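Per your request, structure below.
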């Protein structure tokens, strides 16, 4: 292998082969051969991208650029008494810089990971630990706040509540259900056991199975503590942001913001899917209605959303096409009707005045 020899006086460089004897390192090139006294090599070998630089003699010293590690090791071995070594500093520095970059990138990634996934995970765990009574207390405040600006349809509330009770869904919550007079096609759940149904969505619904599907879906948001989880998440995010930016005054407004968010409680895709799927299970386990009611309701809502003003139910329940497909898949696993659809069918006729 060819190495480079740089003459310290002339700074001229030539390509050389080397050969070692006991006292000298011989440089062999096309033009000349020269012997470097081994004892005059500097101890420290510098590693550069061009090769290992071995210095020789006094100022202006000559340099030998050795291209490969094997040759360098051969030189070190040949003259062990000289104590020649490869300088570690650059390598160590290089490693330190790489390590610092890795640590930096990992820290940034971790912060984002904690924010996006860890926060979701933690919010779920915390929400599960909150007792139902506490959720109900908190939910009641939101519910009353909401009702202070809404107009309750008492007769319809009684009928839809009776319809809901006749389905015997499984829930540990004392469900309070209201129908409010509103042109917005919407229904939503408030943590702790509150379901709000807008009168407009009752106009859209014309099968008892559709109403059962809607209620099963909303009930699952409550049973699975989706809204509570969202609140905990938002509170957690505010605390995290406060920790990073130190703006303590802002954090107090989080509860106020929660009340603002009440009417448009947004659930993630996973929560919606869970509400659909567990809702289907509820229908199958406790009622005589099939999950096809849920499908036909969602298809109607999808159609209505094609107008200028999409129903709020859809704007807060995104990705309707995929959800309908998923329900169509899941509904296949359920058996035929096992329960009577009375008295809910009769109550439904009263709701629809037919
Ligand atoms: Zn939903």
């Amino acid at each position: 292998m060819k190495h480079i020899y740089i003459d310290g006086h002339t700074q001229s460089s030539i390509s050389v082969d080397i050969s070692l004897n006991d006292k000298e390192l011989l440089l062999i090139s096309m033009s000349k051969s020269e012997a470097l006294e081994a004892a005059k090599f500097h101890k420290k070998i510098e590693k550069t991208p061009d090769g290992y630089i071995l210095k020789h003699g006094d100022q202006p010293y000559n340099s030998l650029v050795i291209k490969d590690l094997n040759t360098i090791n051969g030189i070190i071995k040949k003259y062990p008494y000289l104590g020649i070594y490869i300088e570690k500093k650059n390598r160590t520095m290089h490693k330190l810089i790489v390590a610092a970059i890795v640590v930096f990138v990992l820290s940034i990634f971790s912060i984002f990971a904690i924010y996006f996934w860890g926060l979701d995970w933690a919010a779920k765990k915390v929400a599960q630990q909150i007792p139902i009574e506490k959720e109900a207390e908190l939910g009641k405040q939101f519910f009353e706040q909401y009702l202070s600006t809404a107009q309750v349809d008492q007769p319809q509330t009684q009928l839809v509540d009776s319809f809901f009770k006749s389905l015997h869904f499984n829930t540990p919550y004392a469900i309070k259900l209201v129908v409010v007079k509103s042109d917005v096609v919407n229904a939503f759940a408030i943590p702790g056991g509150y379901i709000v149904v807008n009168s407009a969505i009752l106009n859209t619904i014309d099968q008892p199975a559709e109403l059962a599907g809607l209620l099963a879906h909303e009930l699952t948001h409550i049973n699975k503590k989706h809204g509570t989880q969202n609140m905990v998440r938002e509170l957690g995010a505010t605390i995290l942001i406060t920790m990073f930016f130190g703006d303590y005054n802002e954090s107090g407004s989080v509860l106020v913001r929660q009340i603002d968010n009440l009417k448009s409680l947004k659930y993630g895709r996973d929560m919606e899917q869970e509400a659909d799927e567990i809702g289907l299970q509820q229908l199958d386990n406790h009622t005589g209605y099939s999950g096809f009611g849920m499908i036909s309701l969602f298809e109607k809502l999808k159609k209505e959303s094609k107008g200028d003003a999409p129903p709020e139910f859809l704007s807060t329940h995104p990705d309707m096409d995929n959800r309908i497909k998923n329900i169509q898949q899941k509904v296949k696993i359920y058996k035929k009707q096992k329960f009577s659809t009375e008295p809910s069918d009769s109550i439904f006729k009263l709701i629809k005045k037919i």
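Residues 217, 221, 267, 272, 275, 317 surround zinc ion (CB under 6 Å).

Regards,
D.
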